[in-house]
Amino acid sequence: MGYFSCNNKSAIAICDSYNFELLSKNPKRNRRRPFKIAEFDFSDLHSATDGFSSAKLLGKGSHGWVYKAELRKLGLIAAVKKTKVVVGGTGNPADNEVDILSRIYHPRLVNLIGFGLDSNQHKLIVVEYMPNGSLFDQLHGLGRPPGWVKRTRFALQVAWAVQFLHSSQPPIIHRDIKSSNVLIDGDFNSRISDFGLALRGHVEDVRPAGTLGYLDPCYLAPGDLSTKSDVFSFGILLLEMISGRNAIDVNYSPPSVVEWAVPEIRSGNLEAICDPRIGAPDDEEALRRMAVLAARCVRCAAEKRPAMAEVVEGLKSVYRRMKAGSRRCVKVGVARVEVKDGVGRSKSIGGAASEIKFEALDIGSGKREGFGVKMSTVRLSRSKSMGMVRSRRLINGGRKNVIAVGSVKSKLLLVDFDEE
């Protein structure tokens, strides 16, 4: 396998998880591992996680715990998975994950960096660090939920990753596609993680496994397993992204997102299944295509479900439409704004931005944010002249998705209707 010790200083560049995608001029087309898998000393991993302290704990899963690791000698930030010992099981998830991930590499996977062994010879897995949590956090956390463009981009990226797994020789079946196993990297791209249950090819003696709510109802015995089992799980994930509802939620009747959403899709009542926090997208056809695709993925008969290649093509179309709609009203410039009785009107300065009427839902308190001026944020509402937008304060010269920023007195407005 070509393992080597990461104590070697030459390992610094090739093990830097923040630079993996920079190692290829076109990372989306890069399917070859740009680095060698490293074997870490346990003492280094123990030190990097402060003795696997609670302060370094990133999360807990069904197979163990994940810690943030600062490998100072190498200038490397990674995630270390300390897996539970399986007693009486058919296989060790840690061994399985290392075996699977050591054979593949893809920019939309949480890729393997290396591994180590503790004092009891239990395997520790070192993978890329994903600083923005999981898709589950994005959809169900307390923060502002992602908009339609971001959701469809996340879905397309996951579909690409699953298609890659299924097109491997032999095919790799993940068996646990779910929102908590989709992690978000530093560039807000989605990646599939946790290959503890994954299988290469058809395995007769492995019992069915997965997560309730995402598990293929056809998968009742080892002989039932196929790539279409992942397609079903992906369909559940897609319904979760459309609706903002958990795969199984006992607070609703029916609790299953499939039993609730699919009848609504068949009846054409698509707005009913849209996440109420963001509402339906303006492009009804894009929503219809996305919803119908999800319904096809969760068909009871596995043979009637689409292959992931077809899912990818369908989501490409949806993403193009969602993205085009979000940029239909792009205006970038600085304008003077008057706010009266909660209604604002902007007028362009130097022709940089056209006149825009908007409802000023909130004008934040003044705060010094660069440019040497006291700034405040104006939150804009949805209107016919613009898509749903969100506010971001202007920091250090500006950034994407800055919608409205102004001084407390003169109300200067920076308008940038970027994708949500």
TrEMBL record:
Gene3D superfamilies according to UniProt: Phosphorylase Kinase, domain 1 (3.30.200.20), Transferase(Phosphotransferase) domain 1 (1.10.510.10)
Q: Which InterPro entries match?
A: Kinase-like_dom_sf, Prot_kinase_dom, Ser/Thr_kinase_AS
Q: Which residues form the signal peptide?
A: none
PROSITE patterns, A to Z: PROTEIN_KINASE_DOM (PS50011), PROTEIN_KINASE_ST (PS00108)
User: Which Pfam family, an example, fits this chain?
Assistant: Pkinase
Protein kinase domain segment(s): 52-319
Superkingdom of source = Eukaryota
Alphabetized GO MF terms: ATP binding; protein kinase activity
**In its UniProt entry, what is this protein called?**
Protein kinase domain-containing protein
Which organism does this sequence originate in? Salvia splendens (Scarlet sage)
